[in-house]
Amino acid sequence: MVRAWWLPHTVAGMGKHPRRSILSKDDAPAKPRLPEGVLDVTNFGSSNPFTVGVEEELQILDPETGDLVARIDEVLGKASDENDQRLQSELFQAVVETATPICEDIDEVREEVTDLRDRLVDHCEDRGYAIAAASTHPTAHWQDQAYTDKERYAELIETVQWPAKRELIFGVHVHVAVEHPQQAIFVNNHFRPFLPLILGLSTNSPFWKGEATGLKATRPRIFDALPRSGVPRAFQDFADYNAAVGTFKAVGSIDDVTTIWWDIRPRPDLGTVEMRIPDIPTEVDVTVALAGLTQAIVKRLADAWENGESPPLCHNVEVIRENRWRAIRDGIDADLIQVEDGNVEAVPFKNAVDSMFSLLGDAPEELGLQHELQLLQDLVERGETGAERQLRIYEETDDFLPVIQDIVERTPPGKAHLPKIH
Hints:
Elements: E1 52-61, H1 72-78, H2 81-84, E2 87-89, E3 95-99, H3 106-127, E4 130-132, H4 151-160, H5 162-165, E5 172-177, H6 181-191, H7 195-202, E6 207-208, E7 211-212, H8 219-223, E8 229-230, H9 238-250, E9 261-262, E10 264-267, E11 272-275, H10 284-306, H11 317-330, E12 335-340, E13 343-348, H12 349-359, H13 363-367, H14 370-382, H15 386-397, H16 400-410
Parallel strand pairs: 8-9
Antiparallel strand pairs: 1-3, 1-4, 1-5, 2-3, 5-11, 6-7, 10-11, 12-13
């Protein structure tokens, strides 16, 4: 049976309980103070540490027109029994989500993500549809799209209203397993300064409803209208995080942690930290590279927690949010704020990426991620993410159809011939 992040795990014990602090190595460990009935049992430690799961949200298109089509029921109905577990619906019927099983290493991630995209393309081609990987559709209007007929989506629209109704966006989420609740909070806290860099590397949504928005990543600004979104605050410990979840539950804002939509969030139910900020890359190799980078950052931070060390990078939340905005607007052309020894400066994105890689220490080599990090460095050197490519093609043709066709052609791994958009 496929064992995946979204399938129920056997509840595991809490694992080791080393005396490690969450905010700094000088803090004394806090005593557990779990609110009654709130996440008093977790699945941290139920999978091998640093195993990875990847979810991608993809567009279902009419290959003749390039328009989104509401065909999720047909897509899921065509899938094999095995892939049924790995294909999921989303809010709009023109969206299909793929989700890998738990992957032990980056080679398995590559194999699973590639296989899922290939199989999904084949399923859709059999039915006369195309698949596209980009975080917004260049011309689609959310008002024209059909919603998926499920109770959870009806409740989402009823609760959130207009922000949910226009959420016609597509992302990628990366789960990395960690061993202990306190470790998860340390990782969640200190991953936050890296979020703008990952977003910048992934930018792939420069258009919205037939207009260039002036942003390399429009998707996050659409998503930011949802409650409980964006960059979370730092938590003192797992009990502090639990208290926040308990507050939301007590007043009926959430039923569970899946409706906390932060850019990065602990998932006690799955035993992972889930990184949610990237646009979905069109090329599968970039998705895999971003998953590898996420895995490396989590391992670097988990090792720091285990050894009682300070985190490799610290920014206050104001700097993180400003850098996030700069990545949204300018992508890999952004100048990001760097604060070191009391000195504040804006550094080119490439320099910030080089600095990030140097802060990862031995983690990439220990995880076998040299190829993935080199791919991301090459992307920055080349100066073209998906957003730049979309903008370049539109500038050359003054037509959105070639933009959509290019996305469709580059979405499947290793596909030489795909339906043309006329």
